[in-house]
Amino acid sequence: MSDQRVPHMSAEEFRRAGHALVDWLADYQARVAELPVKPRVAPGDIRAQLPPAAPAQGESFDLILADLERIVLPGLMHWQSPNFFGYFPANASPPAILGELVSAGLGQQGMLWLTSPACTELESHVLDWLVDLLALPQRFKSGGPGGGVIQDTASSATLCALLAARERASAYTAREQGTPSTLVAYCSQETHSSMDKAASIAGLGRARLRKIGTDARLAMDAAALAAAIADDRAAGLTPFFVCASVGTTSSLAVDPLPAIADLCQREGLWLHVDGAMAGSAALCPEYRYLHAGLEGADSYCFNPHKWLLTNFDCDCFFVADREPLIRALTVLPEYLRNEASASGAIIDYRDWQIPLGRRFRALKLWFVLRSYGVEGLQAFIRRHVALAAEFEQWVKDDATFELVVPRSLNLVCFRKRGTNADNEALLKRLNDSGRVFLSHTVIRGQYTLRFCVGQTYTERAHVEAAWALIRSL
Amino acid sequence: MSDQRVPHMSAEEFRRAGHALVDWLADYQARVAELPVKPRVAPGDIRAQLPPAAPAQGESFDLILADLERIVLPGLMHWQSPNFFGYFPANASPPAILGELVSAGLGQQGMLWLTSPACTELESHVLDWLVDLLALPQRFKSGGPGGGVIQDTASSATLCALLAARERASAYTAREQGTPSTLVAYCSQETHSSMDKAASIAGLGRARLRKIGTDARLAMDAAALAAAIADDRAAGLTPFFVCASVGTTSSLAVDPLPAIADLCQREGLWLHVDGAMAGSAALCPEYRYLHAGLEGADSYCFNPHKWLLTNFDCDCFFVADREPLIRALTVLPEYLRNEASASGAIIDYRDWQIPLGRRFRALKLWFVLRSYGVEGLQAFIRRHVALAAEFEQWVKDDATFELVVPRSLNLVCFRKRGTNADNEALLKRLNDSGRVFLSHTVIRGQYTLRFCVGQTYTERAHVEAAWALIRSL
Predict the structure, then answer these.
(1) What letter does residue A68 receive in the DSSP assignment?
(2) Which of A455, B193, B321, B351 is most buried as measured by Cβ atoms within 10 A of its Cβ?
(3) At what angle do helices B94-106 and A11-31 cross, to 10 degrees?
(4) What is the interface pTM, i.e. ipTM, of the complex?
């Protein structure tokens, strides 16, 4: 028997290092607004500071913490800076960080109800809460044939929706016999790239994903969708799936769900709705119009890890009927058989997702919902939308700039009047300044700056400073 | 503009709650050996204690922590108990828990190099370290055409390998045109169920996944594999992918990699090797024989989150050539375009995985490798193998019990001499006692108990107590 000591950190060392890291993170959040949002590093700069091999003997935590500060910190894009206005936000928050800490410390593996009943039940429960909080269709609750599950990302949720739809459309044979070569799926030209990825992964191929045109506001043209479906049927193909967006990534356009849902129900197509960022706004009654028509959808997802203060990864995915999803993904090797699963009285989330194993992600969501309360979360959403509305007004009032499309919730798409090259140069100067980070898109050929107000601690002063900087450059 | 306050926890509240939770987790680890490993709850017990709706106003962290103790804790399977011998372990450790904490606090989103250079480069670097530490083929390093990436699970890694292989085998058209209906993949009857799931997801269908028979030790029969490939070619099909296991889930059998790799190279098939748990043993030179033949593999994965002290999720996935993987999964919408990506000088990990977004998971791995050092990790592995060897000897020396197959590393598959029902009843009594948790499998029709020594803090006393309990029941 090997007698060499395993150098576990002692409980005391863990406490000391843990307290130090909690303090370091509190300090990080206090100083992050002063750090350059976009790091000033070139490819390879971080690796060049790391030794070529792992150490033979263990090192002290002080040394590791020092390297965290010296090597890692300067190589970060500061998503948690209140001056971060790029892409969509990736909210972290104190209760969510603490939820991740507890999840890590408990080290649960929630693949089956049996392997962590609390992980499974808290997840179902909190997702049921969210159905009510966002006024989603009641059939997404777990008490009936539907239910919710936490996925890592909307990409995975969309893939799972596609797989469930494929199973339903192929009389449940796709799982065994392969993707039928006649199936056709639909999204818009503005739908998130994860739809292309999902079509490839699922063996459909991107060629059998139709990109429907959009209207002036970049929302899917429902009439064009109907025509495409009819064309495909006439060609002997089998339309089976539509992905609609509540808030596209480029410009936060909202597809016309009522018309699309009607069409899907008439034609027997699975409707998946992706509300990745914008969905969170439905916490506020005044934004629930976004989800009008959702009662006709087969599945829906939104990401509390974007704009609801819950650390990545946390995508909430709901299905109206879990049977085709489970049928598409179920596996039951002998070593996972158990009484609880056989009883049918419980949920085994391994059958609701691509991976087998899973972390206890419901904890952070539970912490966030309880720590902020519904009214606190509503205030959070409203604050950001109000700030974006102010920013929009400033753009309108300044003849140097123009809106490219009307503001949608917390996203303003704007540009300097001038060439695309002017705008590209402006964005580069802004981001190279380190004082803000914005990202871009191209709308109808126009290079467009995206200004998304959504970071946990962004307040009026940050938005004002950003606007002053934009005008000055 | 909305003036309602957003009730963020203050920095001081975060510090206080964070310190309290670190202490709670340290205490948890100190008392977990005394808790029933398998929770004494029935389906619905946890949900019954949760209120039907989220609170309108925020609650204090003390209240949340109290409910964590009162509601969640009794509903956990204690994977972190030293008396947990079920399935494969899901190691947590102090440095990994702290790594998760830092990752949560920094709130990075590493989809692109640009969106977090440190997240990307630390990941490539630490995975290169592991190539050397496990003496994996050098072509898995990121300096050449290959490289490593962290996936959530081996299930996802296997799916990615299958997609890359599909792309390579279909002259890169699968992504666009769908999975060709002639492709055939191979694994053994003992391969992990994720291979079935991957074949379904990728549109191949389980019917085009051939389950090759196994030898006396439950390892894949390479001659039978060669025959199946020949048969499929004769039938006009296109063999393209083999998944081999270094340590099957049921009995930790090791497939004959040298023969399989030769065959795959001769036939032009992609060879993926799944070393999910057993792979970590290669840290010790005396166990590197497990990977003999791996130099002929196209991809490989193992899970530090199983038996290398790194919290779930952390699967390390390596490819010898990243081009087909990226080709299979790449997407490039306008809003993700950037100079760094266009330069080709960097890695954008979004193209190496199913989801788009990704957490900073390399931190915990870096913390673990540095905190334990290579020698510390070797001691950890050796201790468990030695304990399993002792347990095996006890089984051999007791006429009431028998080994079902010879021990493999840290897994002992054994049974009481008697009927399957006797053994099923024994397992139930053991697990219902709360003093240990074991899981089972069926080997050649025999209900078999699996005793896997791999939990972070399992020591000789725990294994002795488990054996005493097993004999007494």
Answers:
(1) I
(2) A455
(3) 10
(4) 0.97
Q: pLDDT tens, A369-389? A: 999 999 999 999 999 999 999
pLDDT at B327 over 70: yes
Region(s) of chain A under CATH 3.40.640.10: 108-359
Evaluate if residue B1 carries a pLDDT over 70: no
A9, A332, A367 ranked by CB distance to B64: nearest? A367
Q: Which residues contact B147 (CB under 8 A, 6 or more apart)?
A: B124, B127, B140, B141, B318, B319, B322, B347
Q: How many CB pairs under 8 A join A and B?
A: 538
> Which CA distances in Å does B79 have to A108, A124, A392, B85?
6, 21, 51, 9
Consecutive H or E run containing B414: strand B411-416
Q: What is d(CA A197, CA B330) in angstroms, rounded to the nearest whole number?
A: 7
Closest chain A residue to B388 measured between Cα atoms?
A1
Residues of CATH 3.90.1150.10 domain(s) within chain A? 9-38+77-91+374-473
DSSP lists the bridge partners of residue A443 as A446
Subunit contact B55:A312, Cβ cutoff 8 A: no
Query: Which residue in the set A2, A117, A441 is minimally distant from B75, CB to CB?
Result: A117
Taking the domain B108-359, which CATH number applies?
A: 3.40.640.10
Is the dihedral angle over the CA atoms A352, B280, B195, B162 positive or is it negative?
positive
pLDDT of residue B256: 98
Quote the minimal CA–CA distance from B472 to chain A in Å.
Answer: 24
- Segments in chain A below pLDDT 50: 1
Comparing CB atoms, the residue among B76, B107, B363 nearest residue A90 is B107
Provide the CATH topology of domain A9-38+77-91+374-473: Aspartate Aminotransferase, domain 1 (3.90.1150)
Nearest CA-CA distance, residue B338 and chain A, Å: 10
